[in-house]
């Protein structure tokens, strides 16, 4: 596990939780690297199995009008190389169109299916609430990804009568312990992970997505600044870099059964 620095209100105590599998759902290739690559690098180094599910192909991304016919292939290649840099090999795709993602039952069912297959301790996804302080966090696909995954996590994943064809195919209902959000409104963030030792790995992973960065040096300055600001908000020593999350206990000692 990475070293966790948490605010007093954080529901997640890393010293008491055993994390073996994490499943990450994001809207586009590169979202996970901006949001959580440092934490993921620390998890995989500690032996945690991390899987990605990229919900769209990122086919509307980039800035170069040349070579648009292979943008989907290019972005998949970038995500695969970026994932490898932080120790992730297992990548799934839903192949929705970039800009068209919606929390439909077709999408939610695919999310439920994958969660029941992998049975992770943590599902990590994008926040379904719009961030008015930095609207770039709230691309409509980001919001849709967060909403679809949240609807899947509760109640569908743990309800044996939701999408009954999945149970009939042998995918039993599953009670997920934790739901972690990236791209959260700052007021919602309640958990910080010290990633000072993973900053280079995170930036290396982000740089791989070169098709999305017209100014790589500028991007790096912004990301470094944001991680330092997170460390300051977490009350860490000056110069500490952190990633910030909104962590929700889905099934734990404080929750009750029922739909």
TrEMBL record:
Source domain of life: Bacteria
GO molecular function: hydrolase activity, acting on carbon-nitrogen (but not peptide) bonds, in linear amides
Pfam families membership: PIG-L
GO BP of this protein: glycoside metabolic process
Keywords: Zinc
Entry keyword annotation includes Amino-acid biosynthesis: no
PANTHER family: LMBE FAMILY PROTEIN, N-ACETYLGLUCOSAMINYL-PHOSPHATIDYLINOSITOL DE-N-ACETYLASE-RELATED
The protein's name: Uncharacterized protein, LmbE-like protein
Taxonomic source organism: Paenarthrobacter aurescens (strain TC1)
């Amino acid at each position: 596990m990475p070293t966790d620095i948490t605010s007093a209100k954080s529901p997640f105590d890393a010293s008491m939780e055993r994390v073996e599998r994490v499943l990450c759902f994001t809207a586009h290739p590169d979202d996970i690297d901006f949001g959580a690559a440092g934490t993921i690098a620390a998890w995989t180094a500690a032996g945690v199995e991390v899987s990605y599910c990229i919900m769209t192909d990122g086919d509307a991304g980039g800035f170069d009008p040349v070579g648009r016919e292979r943008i989907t292939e290019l972005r998949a290649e970038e995500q695969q190389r970026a994932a490898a840099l932080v120790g992730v090999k297992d990548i799934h795709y839903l192949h929705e169109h970039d800009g068209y993602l919606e929390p439909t039952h077709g999408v939610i069912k695919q999310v439920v299916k994958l969660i029941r297959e992998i049975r992770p301790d943590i599902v990590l996804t994008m926040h379904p609430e719009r961030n008015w302080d930095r609207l770039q966090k709230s691309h409509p696909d980001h919001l849709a990804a967060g909403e679809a995954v949240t609807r899947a996590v509760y109640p569908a994943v743990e309800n044996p009568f939701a999408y009954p064809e999945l149970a009939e195919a042998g995918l039993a209902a599953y009670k997920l312990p934790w739901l972690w959000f990236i791209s959260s409104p700052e007021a919602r963030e309640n958990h910080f992970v010290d990633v000072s030792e993973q900053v280079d790995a995170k930036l290396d992973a982000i740089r791989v997505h070169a098709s999305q960065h017209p100014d790589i040096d500028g991007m790096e300055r912004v990301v470094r600044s944001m991680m330092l600001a997170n460390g300051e908000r977490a009350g860490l020593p000056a110069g500490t870099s952190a990633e910030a999350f909104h962590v929700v206990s889905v099934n734990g000692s404080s929750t009750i059964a029922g739909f």
